[in-house]
Amino acid sequence: MKKQNHILVALLAATSILASGCAGEIEQNPIGLEEEPSQTDEQGEETTETATEEKEPDMLASQKKLYDQNKDTIGWIEVPGTNVDNVIVQKKDEPEDAKNTYYLDKDFSHQKFRAGTVFMDYRDVFSYQEDRFSENIVLYGHNMADNTMFGSLRRYRQDLEFYKEAPFIKLSSNYKEYDYVIFGLVITSGDADNGGDIYADPMTWTGFPYWNMEELDDKTHFDYYVNTVESLNMIDNVIDVAYGDQLLTLSTCYSDEDNSRFLIVARQLRDGETEASLKKLIEGGVAETTSDEEEDDAENSKTTTKKQTTEDADTDEEIEDTTESEE
Predict the structure, then answer these.
(1) Which residues, listed in sequence order, are joined to residue 252 by a DSSP beta bridge?
(2) What pLDDT was estimated at residue 285?
(3) Are 121 and 214 in contact, with CB atoms under 8 Å apart?
(4) pTM for the model
(5) pLDDT of residue 207
(6) What is the pLDDT of residue 199?
(7) Which residues contact 76 (CB under 8 A, 6 or more apart)?
(8) What is the torsion angle, in degrees rounded to the nearest 10, for the CA atoms of residue 155, residue 168, residue 82 and residue 115?
(9) Which of 54, 156, 211, 304 has its CA 20 to 30 A from that of 31?
(10) Distance between CA atoms of 209 and 121, rounded to whole angstroms?
(11) What is the pLDDT of residue 286?
(12) Per-residue pLDDT at 299
């Protein structure tokens, strides 16, 4: 999230992330969003940088109906080729230690429900002001044996060739729809240790605290996240990922025995990219260029010519996903 109006986003967390298993929580002590002290002038009057506030647009009709039923509604996710086609909620009005656990065992209507509801990490920013989005949106869902919630995502790790058939994710905020392409399938631990320092940079932790890496404002942290995903990747990735891309991480449980997690990591499609061209690349072909890209290439070619003449630990049981406060 690009910092504006002196908002400082801290990358933080628990003194030690030791969960009792997938049915337990990944503990954390998030610092969250902290406002820097306001500046004052000689008269003692508060002065702050003000940005022109963008007027909130109308919600998508489908999302507005859901929002009217539950104000925690933050979006919708669909993973074509799987059973994932779910509303996304985000809890903000609970105590810090309950915001990322509230929907673990509650349905959209706040009733007790073992499968819970797909939810977004409470620290993520995902509204209508795109320049304030968290660089890495993290969603959590239970790995249900009946393939509800994120249960059907297990097919990606059970059959790696399935990725070539279904490499895209559709993510909608309450205001706009976005397309993502998957570039990482990862099994990693749900435990990590910050050495007792709650302010420790996530890059210094033992383990991969993906759940505490939503705000990747600088290239160093962005590259660390992407490179860690690549180092653990179950697939041979051909999708390039660069600082400035918007990321999406889906987290679900993998095994109770070692408190591990299965992650699907994707990036948002860039301007000019199409699903058809990316799918061809993933299947082993050459990505097609759009007409705009072809025109640019032609123009560059002309310029160059002119210069030259006068560049599985598989589990089929219901394993609950816990966030960090995952899970």
Answers:
(1) 262
(2) 66
(3) yes
(4) 0.77
(5) 78
(6) 74
(7) 62, 63, 66, 86, 87, 88, 171, 172
(8) 90
(9) 54
(10) 13
(11) 61
(12) 52
- C-alpha span between 193 and 323 (Å, rounded): 15
Specify the pLDDT at position 189. Answer: 83
The conformational region for residue 234 under phi > 0 = left, psi -120 to 50 = alpha, else beta, is alpha
The whole-angstrom separation of Cα 257 and Cα 245 is 35
132: left (phi over 0), alpha (psi -120 to 50) or beta: alpha
Per the listing, tokens 């310029």 go with 303
Which residues lie across from 262 on neighbouring strands? Answer: 187, 252
- The Cα angle at residue 141 between residues 139 and 144, in degrees rounded to 5: 160
Distances (CA, A) of 70 to 67, 87, 88, 90, 97: 5, 11, 11, 10, 21
- Token readout for 119 is 């939810």
Beta strands in the chain (DSSP E): 7-9, 16-17, 33-35, 39-40, 46-47, 73-78, 85-89, 119-120, 136-140, 168-173, 177-189, 192-193, 247-255, 260-268
Low pLDDT (below 50) residues in the chain:
3-51, 290-295, 297-298, 301-327
Is residue 26 within 8 Å of 17, Cβ to Cβ? yes
The tens digit of pLDDT for each residue in 113-171 reads 999 999 999 999 999 999 999 999 999 999 999 999 999 999 999 999 999 999 999 99
Q: Would you mind telling me the total number of residues written for the chain in this entry? A: 327
Can you say whether the dihedral through the CA atoms of 74, 48, 200, 267 is positive or negative? positive
**Structure tokens given for 307:** 């210069």
